[in-house]
Amino acid sequence: MFINAGLRRCVFVALVLLGATTLNAQTVVVAWGSDAFGQLDVPAGLNGMRVTDPRAIAAGWGHNLALNADGTVVGWGEHGARQTSPPPGLTGVQAIAAGGWHSLALKTDGTVVAWGRNDYGQASVPAGLTGVQAIAGGGAHSLALKTDGTVLAWGWNDYGQASVPAGLINVQGVAAGLYHSLALKTDGTVVAWGSNESGQARVPAGLTNVQAIAAGWYHSLALRTDGTVVAWGGNSEWYVPAGLSGVRSIAAGYGGHNLALKTDGTVVAWGSNESGQATVPAGLANVQAIAAGLSHSLALKADGTIVAWGNNGGGQTDVPTELANVRSIAAGGVYDLALKSDGRVVAWGVGTDGYVPAGLTRVQAIAAGYSHSLALKTDGTVVAWGWECCGQTDIPAGLTNVQGIAGGYVHSLALKTDGTVVAWGSNESGQATVPAGLANVQAIAAAGSYSLALKTDGTVVAWGSNYSGQMDIPAGLTNVQAVAAGWDHSLALKTDGTVVAWGSNSNGQTDVPAGLTNVRAIAAGGWHSLALKTDGTVVAWGYNGGGETDVPAGLANVQAIAANWYHSLAVTGGPVLSLAPARVWVGLKNSDDQGTVFDLRVELYKNRSTLLSAGETLCIAGITRNANLAKQVDVAFGPVLEETLAPGDQLSLKVLTRIGTNPNGTKCSGAGGSHSNAVGLRLYFDSANRPSRFGAQVSPRPMSDFFFHFPDFLDTIAPTGSTLRYKVFVASQDVRF
Q1: Is residue 324 part of a domain?
Q2: Preceding peptide of 435 cis, ω within 30°
Q3: Which of 232, 476, 585, 612 sits at 20 to 30 Å (Cα–Cα) from 32?
Q4: What is the pLDDT of residues 570-623, one digit of tens each?
Q5: Cα angle vertex 387, ends 383, 392, to 5°?
Q6: Is the pLDDT of residue 389 over 60?
Q7: Would 352 be classed as within a structural domain?
């Protein structure tokens, strides 16, 4: 069989699954844009930030870190500089450190990762830094101890705290204070540098036999091998309690308090106590590690639990222990909602403390207006709460059998199972006056002062305010599968994976990026737009005054998006099907095509209609007509997200080709690359010596391998004699490229 380069010929290979294949991976909520009201401060317990079997803890001025046994890092507390948000995918960590507003992680390969505030370069790890064995974070500087016993420093250096003394070697430990640094040498002596205004860098004469060091704001600590503690600098914080002994580790708080962990597992604290940071909780025992922040304290117990006390102004003593398994998200004007897999709702941002109604459970969907919230319960009823000015939270009496909800600025919508829509709240622009006779609705959207309804025939209906043309649905718009409403612009996602936009374009919010395809979900903010692609990446356009279209670098594996006014949200993780590359062998149909450069594209469909994933390999050269020298090509798929493949579902693989093109649309270079008369390729899915393989696996272990035993050309019916558990058939059709 051959595939035309002008008319593309498509090969469908359908796999009938005989068993369900899902992976319920951990979900993570990512937020970006304006954080003026805390709407980006995702609660630590929501999302990948679960303390599980912690092995180490660290405390910054207002944030904390925990290192899990699996090499992942959890952060919580003050989040203004993103110091509690480790880079996506950070694993293989063996040690952590927390600075003032930045964080550090030492990986098992000896490299260092840093994040958080970087105004003095404290989070800019020097290029090529390797061979590190220990780290420390100061107020705005960082230290790394290398395996050769030398120290490297970077960040703020106004007081010389990052100027490592020349010739300093044989170091076995480091500590960083606000403006000073300490190094513990293998001979048990201590070296200090940086600010000395309070004597914090003046090591006591004759201090030896030191086994550990700690640095606070204006003071320093040393733990001696006999279990006693020596302090210097500062004021009252250096007065070690009389008779203190049997100490095995120490910590110095940036605000002037200290902790000592004794060999019996108890903790002693002294120094500043204005926030209770030096008041050890009664009965605290079996402690194996300690950490001290600006005005709060942490203790890691032998049972893997973390105890925190002291100042909680940034949530630094709210230890995250609960995995939320987020199913969906909603973005309000100045707050956000997350729906957990157990049917409960979490809120954050302005006014969200205690915001969710007590006892609200069994929720299946959520929606957010500007400052009010909606929850759809599994029994088909709706709960509303939040700002109430115009009846937007006054649910109509007797409203049941609801299957969808949406929140506008000050109005609300409900979609019933019979395909009708109910609206309530402000109606000054007619946004709550559902058009007479509206039926067969499958989805709804609301924002500003207007409403949208998507009908089962793929058409869109709008009502309410139209001052910017947000209700002027483009003529002939059909085949729509989803709609989204911004303040005064609208989006429609078509079944072919493209996006149509209309309404106000004051900030480019309706300028859909050229070539945007393979979209599976859309969201509209106040004046910006988002698209979630089948490969799990996010595309954003429109207003960016608060960074709402600055999609975080590396954001991938996204399964849901939300947008409102000045910020954006994404849920990453979730059910993921990891696919091996599609492998085919290609050859030329005619010798006249010799030297022509081709592209190959593969598309994976569920039940022959829902595009799950796609991949392309561009500019394939070196293809010959000789079947014995067929070119092997592997085409990588993106991950398949959020799809549950149940018994009886079919995976269909479509293979397509064209004359070779670069990503910018120009023809590939090379002999014959501009041939316009090339007839096409032959696809060798199987030959005597080259069995083709299309594999799919659910991490962490294989689901199956699919081996196709086809004749040399795929212009015949399905193969016979397969011993696999899958029915395989082949169909083909011509589709315009």
Answers
A1: no
A2: no
A3: 612
A4: 877 654 454 556 666 667 655 555 677 777 767 666 666 666 666 677 778 877
A5: 55
A6: yes
A7: no
Quick check: 118 pLDDT over 90?
yes
Closest by Cα among 313, 334, 327 to 33: 334
Sign of CA dihedral 604, 600, 684, 701: negative
pLDDT in the model for residue 57: 87
478 to 72, 154, 492: CA distances (angstroms): 46, 58, 10
Q: Which pLDDT value is given to residue 713?
A: 24
Q: How far is CA 79 from the centre of its chain?
A: 16
Structure tokens at 18: 């005989």
Tokens of 685: 């899915």
Least confident piece of the model among 518-522, 625-629, 642-646: 642-646
What distance in Å separates the CA atoms of residue 679 and residue 625, rounded to the nearest whole number? 12
125 pLDDT more than 70:
yes
Residue 378's contacts (CB-CB under 8 Å, 6 or more residues apart) are: 343, 362, 363, 364
Phi first, then psi: what are they for 598, rounded to 5°? -120, 165
Lowest-pLDDT range, 140-154, 298-312, 386-400? 298-312
**pLDDT of amino acid 715:** 27
* CATH, residue 418: 2.130.10.30
Distances (CA, A) of 506 to 446, 509, 528: 20, 7, 10
Same domain for 595 and 521, yes or no, is: no
Query: What pLDDT digit, counting tens, does each position of 676-724 carry?
Result: 445 455 655 443 333 333 333 222 222 222 222 222 222 222 333 322 2
What whole-number distance in Å separates Cα of residue 319 and Cα of residue 59?
Answer: 12
pLDDT confidence of residue 43: 53
**Closest-CA residue to 333 (of 383, 412, 407, 393):** 407
Report the residue count for the chain.
Answer: 737
Mean pLDDT of 188-203: 96
Which among 294, 310, 326 is the end of a domain?
A: 310
For residue 405, give both structure tokens: 């909800």
DSSP string across 435-487: PTT---EEEEEEETTEEEEEETTS-EEEEE--TTSTT-PPTT---EEEEEE-S
Place of tokens 């969201």: 523
Position 9 scores a pLDDT of 31
In angstroms, the CA 485 to CA 473 distance is 12
pLDDT of residue 572: 74
CA 464 to chain centre: 36
Backbone angles phi, psi at 32, to 5 degrees: -150, 165
| Residues 61 and 18 occupy one common structural domain | no
- The C-alpha atoms of residue 417 and residue 87 are separated, in whole angstroms, by 42
For residue 162, the model assigns a pLDDT of 97
Domain extent, residue 126, equals 51-310
SS in 3 state form for 509-551?
CCCCCCCCCCEEEEEECCCEEEEEECCCCEEEEECCCCCCCCC
100: left (phi over 0), alpha (psi -120 to 50) or beta: alpha
The model carries a pTM of 0.50
Give the confidence band of 75 by pLDDT, cuts at 50, 70, 90: confident
E strand or H helix that includes residue 252: strand 247-252
Q: How far is CA 125 from the centre of its chain?
A: 22
Residue 103 and residue 63 share a domain: yes
